[in-house]
Amino acid sequence: MSKETDLQRVLDLGLVAIIRAPNGDRLLEVAEALYAGGIDVIEVTFTVPGVIDIIKQLRDKIGDRILLGAGTVLDVETARAAILAGAEFIVTPTVNTEVIKLCQRYGKVVMSGAFTPTEILTAWEAGADIVKVFPADVGGPSYLKAVHGPLPQVRLLPTGGVNLDTLNSFVKAGACAVGLGGALVEKDALENGDMQRIENAARDFVKAMQKARVSNQD
Question: Which of 152, 166, 188, 211 is deepest in the core (most CB within 10 A)?
Answer without folding.
Answer: 166
